[in-house]
Amino acid sequence: MAEPGVPTPAALRPPAPVAASDPTRFGRVEADGTVVLLAPEGEVVVGQWAAGDPADGLAFFGRKYDDLVVEIDLITARLSDHRATPEQADAVLTRVREGLAARSFVGDVAGLEARCARLETMLGAAREEAKARKAEQREASLAARRALTDEAESLRDSTAWKATTERYAAIVEEWKALPRGERAAEQELWQRISAARTAFDKRR
User: Residues 91, 97, 101, 106: is their CA dihedral positive or negative?
Assistant: First the structure.
């Protein structure tokens, strides 16, 4: 489980989807078509627009920003609802941060950075949760393997030949279906099952 004080993904609910941003608040287009972003570090030239009305150019670069926002909001929501893995969320976060660094859009840089920071915090909690979940699964799998081993050994002296033969076959299939865990422990248990089955087969 997550450490005390570390928020879980469910506790960090993503913000509701927002409408298209207003690029005129964060940039402008010069008379020659140069598109400028008003970034925290100052004015940044993000591109050139020569396809018509300058307002269309500003809108075009504003949509590029909105695309990044939609991407980060969507993966944040999916991570929160356990519909995305930490690995998937991390890939999107990396891609959006690359887009942020490229400065090829017009929009609220600080706002997008805050979204990335929120997702990064969620990722930390999600990784801890996934780690704890895997540990629990390994323990449960090992317990199930031990139970199968005990059953196999209890059948060693059985004289119900047909039923016991079928049960040994079923034990093998159940073993195969279990998630993998600690290799050394599993090998030791499997050797015990194999020895019990061999002893039964010799008696039969």
Answer: positive
Cα–Cα distance, 93 to 132 (Å, whole number): 23
Average of pLDDT values for 37-59?
A: 91
Q: Is 203 helix (H, G, I), strand (E, B) or coil?
A: helix
The token pair at 145 is 């393997």
Q: Global pTM?
A: 0.64
Task: Provide the 10 A C-beta neighbour count for residue 13.
Answer: 13
Contact 123, 75 (CB under 8 A): no
- Across the chain, the runs of DSSP E, i.e. the strands, are 27-29, 34-39, 42-48
Query: Between the CA of residue 20 and those of 8, 23, 86, 132, what are the distances in Å?
Result: 29, 9, 27, 39
Lowest average pLDDT, out of 9-13, 39-43, 144-148, 200-204, goes to 9-13
